[in-house]
Amino acid sequence: MKSDSLIEEYSKNRGTSKLILTVGTIENDEIDYKVYGHKGVELEKKQHRYEIGSLTKSIMMAKLCQAINDNKINIEEKLGNIINKDLNHNPTVLQLATHTARYGNSYPKKITRKELKNALLTKDNPYYGYKEENILSDIEKFKPNEKHREWVYSQFGGAVMGEILSKTYNKDIKTIMEEMLKELNMNNTGYTEDTKIAKCWKWEGSEVYLSTTGLISTIEDMLKFVNENINCNPEYLSIAHKKQYTISKGKYEIGLGWIINDDGNILWHDGSTDTFDCFIGFEKKSKKGVVVLSNYPNKGKINAAKIGLEKINEMVKNRK
After folding, report:
1. How far is Cα 318 from Cα 206, in angstroms, rounded to an integer?
2. Position 260 pLDDT exceeds 80
3. How far apart are alpha carbons 259 and 263 in whole angstroms?
4. Residue among 148, 259, 163 nearest 210 (CA)
5. Cα 122 from Cα 297, distance rounded (Å)
């Protein structure tokens, strides 16, 4: 299969001598996975802990769906009404959830582009210490760039969504995320910094960006999360699967925390940090899903998303 060839080619990249690549699959609730090392050598079937980057947002969006289902949040509500601020730029919850809030690639004012670049080069967390008072100040001061496209993937917008949840539940985002993980029975996922296969970002514990990145998880927990989405159990997860915005006509749409392939109803998301690269994807009709977790950063033409999308497409084409 082409996905096997992609895994082999990927595992020969420069810098993959310590590669730990885990590829998991779901077929009709049956879960399995394989672990690969350098040059595609199959390793001992053992669970490792991976930083999952922006897959953290997909879990946060599950909490948003629960809030919508419980009538705690109206998706058309304006940001200013929720945080009790008179804002010049005042997007809706839906715009924030679909990356159409015009925040774009804006960096927090506390962090200059030079500081961000230096942090990335040293693999340190550029969002360390960025707390509620910082994001509220940046929200109030923000002015959109008129040249920005309507849809631009936004880390800052994700952090603003985390602040909305904090205001809604009157709890810090770390507590909210940890409660959500318990609800989803993801007992081996959290902000633990204890992976042994690569360096992870360190957190103080009160940063608003804990809603967008930083979770550490295992293959079984991520497969469990994907399978819960396939089966819509809890039922409110289905809210996230509805198409909300067309990113690229005839190619990609977006739900709440999921990219939706227009040609096949495959839902997916990827996430990366300085040392990890991950992918989750599924198709509900065939009850098939894929998780790819790697301790090699997103570099070059082949990455976790390319491997994962090829794998799920192969599985869907071979429906039983």
Report:
1. 46
2. yes
3. 12
4. 163
5. 14
How far, CA to CA in Å, does 58 sit from each of 24, 81, 219? 18, 24, 16
pLDDT at 115 over 80: no
More confident residue, 113 or 181: 181
Sign, CA dihedral 182-93-231-308, equals negative
Residue linked to tokens 């082949």 = 302
Give the pairing type, strands 21-27 and 267-272: unpaired
Q: By CB neighbour count within 10 A (0-12 exposed, 13-18 middle, 19+ buried), where does 264 fall?
A: middle
Residue type, 159: A
Kindly calculate the radius of gyration of the chain based on its CA atoms and give it in whole angstroms: 19
CA 146, CA 144: separation in Å to the nearest integer?
A: 6
Residues of the chain above pLDDT 70, percent: 95
What ranges make up the beta strands (E) of the chain? 21-27, 30-36, 50-51, 216-217, 245-248, 252-254, 259-261, 267-272, 277-283, 288-294
Average pLDDT over residues 16-24: 97
pLDDT over 80 (residue 290): yes
Instruction: With both helix axes pointing from N to C terminus, report the angle between 304-317 and 2-10 in degrees, rounded to the nearest 10.
Output: 160
Instruction: Please report the pLDDT score of residue 210 as a whole number.
Output: 96
